[in-house]
């Protein structure tokens, strides 16, 4: 009966996901190259956006988030943590499926990203972002949640679970980065100034080319263009230098704060959902050829993570890349619903 119920939920979720994906694909490509505000003003999210005001490191902040409540609640909450080149809005299909299955879904934009504040000065750390997230959840009355992170959001989700194990009902990692120490493997480090100069050169073409090869294994669908323009639009807008500066600080955080050495300390049950053809490794484009060949090998990295995390289960998607939830949402969401551990059941 349990599996019949899961299958029914997955089938319903798949239909909703198909509708969501079709709606995105129907949107025309932004040939006129839209420019968005520093906090992504002008770009619509799929659900109402709320904002939490707080002070951090002496600066006033606004942390944007979506809080989606299901029609029939099952009593559990899922927190969705986006990646570096993603926003809370890119979780749209997953939000549909989870809410349809009875989960309350909270999807924040981290400070420095998307619709949240881009501070002039901020010491970025995964500890700080985890604290910001915990404070947000506490303000919303959420004492315990399933924490799900993709890409850089996976690094943050692991840090959150390490800092707040009692508040983490389950950890779900979707192609998380930070499963290896790129610097230790020989990838040259870049200064914040060098990252900043690189980010100032961001264009839709560069974003599209990188995502096609890394996220979608050389494939492309019209639905992906919306997310390209989301990122490129912030880099064309009036706040583009502040966007680039925060992006540079965040890249420095990612490169210098690997979580791989602490994976054995993760206590909550963990589900890894991995696109095997992912080759993501920060700054590998500046690495020597022999180093480049050794990093970003997700088939190996994910299996190592599954062996290292004490209570872990892995589901692999052999033909998918860095964003399996977007490349094959039906297969991904079936595996997600099957792998979740609702409380009390």
Descriptive notes:
By secondary structure, the protein is of the alpha/beta class. It has one domain: Alpha/Beta hydrolase fold, catalytic domain (Rossmann fold), CATH 3.40.50.1820. The chain is 40% helix and 15% strand. It has 12 helices and 8 strands. The radius of gyration is 19 Å and the shape is globular. It starts with a helix and ends in a 6-residue tail after the last helix.
Please sum up the structure shown:
By secondary structure, the protein is α/β, with parallel strands linked by helices.
> What's the N-to-C terminus distance?
13 Å
Q: Describe the sheet with the most strands.
A: 8 strands, mixed
What is the structural class? alpha/beta
- Topology as H/E string? HEEEHEHEHEHHHHEHHEHH
- CATH class division: Alpha Beta
Residue runs with pLDDT of under 50 for 5 or more positions? 1-30
Topology (SSEs and partners):
Layout: H1 2-26, E1 50-56, E2 59-68, E3 77-81, H2 92-100, E4 104-108, H3 126-139, E5 145-150, H4 152-163, E6 168-174, H5 192-200, H6 204-214, H7 225-236, H8 240-256, E7 270-275, H9 289-292, H10 298-308, E8 312-317, H11 324-327, H12 329-339
Parallel strand pairs: 3-4, 3-5, 5-6, 6-7, 7-8
Antiparallel strand pairs: 1-2, 2-4
């Amino acid at each position: 009966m349990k599996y019949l119920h899961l299958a029914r939920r997955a089938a319903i979720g798949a239909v909703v996901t198909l509708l969501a994906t079709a709606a995105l694909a129907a949107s025309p490509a932004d040939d006129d190259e839209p420019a968005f505000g520093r906090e992504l003003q002008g770009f619509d999210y799929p659900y109402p956006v709320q904002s939490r005001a707080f002070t951090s490191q002496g600066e006033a902040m606004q942390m944007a988030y979506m809080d989606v409540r299901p029609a029939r609640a099952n009593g559990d909450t899922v927190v969705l943590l986006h990646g570096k080149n993603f926003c809370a809005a890119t979780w749209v299909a997953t939000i549909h499926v989870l809410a349809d299955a009875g989960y309350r879904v909270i999807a924040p934009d981290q400070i420095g990203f998307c619709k949240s504040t881009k501070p002039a000065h901020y010491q970025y750390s995964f500890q700080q972002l985890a604290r910001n997230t915990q404070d947000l959840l506490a303000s919303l009355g959420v004492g315990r949640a399933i924490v799900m992170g993709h890409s850089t959001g996976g690094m943050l989700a692991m840090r959150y679970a390490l800092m707040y194990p009692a508040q983490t009902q389950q950890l779900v990692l979707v192609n998380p980065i930070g499963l290896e120490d790129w610097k230790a493997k020989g990838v040259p480090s870049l200064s914040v100034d060098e990252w900043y100069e690189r980010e100032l050169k961001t264009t839709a073409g560069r974003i599209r080319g990188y995502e096609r090869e890394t996220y979608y294994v050389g494939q492309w669908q019209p639905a992906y263009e919306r997310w390209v323009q989301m990122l490129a639009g912030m880099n064309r807008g009036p706040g583009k230098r502040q966007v680039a500066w925060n992006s540079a600080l965040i890249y420095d955080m990612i490169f210098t704060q690997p979580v791989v050495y602490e994976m054995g300390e993760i206590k909550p049950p963990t589900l890894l959902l991995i696109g095997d053809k992912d080759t993501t490794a920060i700054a590998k484009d500046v690495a020597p050829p022999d180093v480049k060949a050794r990093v970003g090998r997700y088939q190996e990295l994910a299996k190592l993570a599954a062996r290292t995390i004490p209570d872990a289960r892995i589901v692999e998607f052999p033909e998918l890349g860095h964003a399996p939830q977007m490349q094959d949402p039906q297969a991904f969401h079936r595996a997600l619903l099957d792998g979740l551990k609702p409380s009390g059941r």
